[in-house]
Every structure is written in C-alpha cells, then in structure tokens.
Amino acid sequence: PGHRRLITDHKARIAELKKHHEIRLREILSILGDDPRTAFQVASRMTWDIDCDSWEDFPMAQKWFATGEAIAHLRYLQQNGFIARRDEENITTFTLISVSA
Known about the structure:
The protein is mainly alpha-helical and 101 residues long. It has 3 helices and 2 strands; from the N terminus they run αααββ. Strands 1-2 form a two-stranded antiparallel ribbon.
C-alpha cells in the first residue's frame, strides 16, 4: 500500500474496500437528496475518520483529499446512471436522477 499497514490478507482487504465503496455510495446518494450540490459540498457532509470537530476545522489539504474522494464516487454514480452532472457558469453540481413510476 501507499500508506498505513502492510496488507497480509489481500482478499480481506479487497472485501473491505468494496464494502467501504458501497457505504460511501449510499451516503452520497442520501447527501444529494433533492438538492444539487458541488463535490466540495458533498465532501463537507460525508463522515470522515479525522480528529476534527467539524468540516471547518479540517486542514485545507484534508479538504482537498476528501473532495477528491467525493469526486471519484460522484463520477461512478454518474456513469452508472444514478446521478446527473450539470456544468453551469464554471460550477459543476450533481443531483439525483428521479425515477418516475
């Protein structure tokens, strides 16, 4: 790995990463709700394992890393038809795609 502990059971680590990805996807879908949000806004509402009381207390570098992770998940959700991306006036937002019954 690029950081943290040595991986001795790669199959367990792969399963752990898949579960983390699924949890993140569900979290992001719930964050989007009915309101369009930027990746930064999504990241600010996600749960993070960092020793800060609030998003405002995050170091700037951590906000960049968090936003990068949010972007990766948002792109996945967009490519798989769960959310829509809108680029308007140099601002990119994401919204849920509503499914009519």
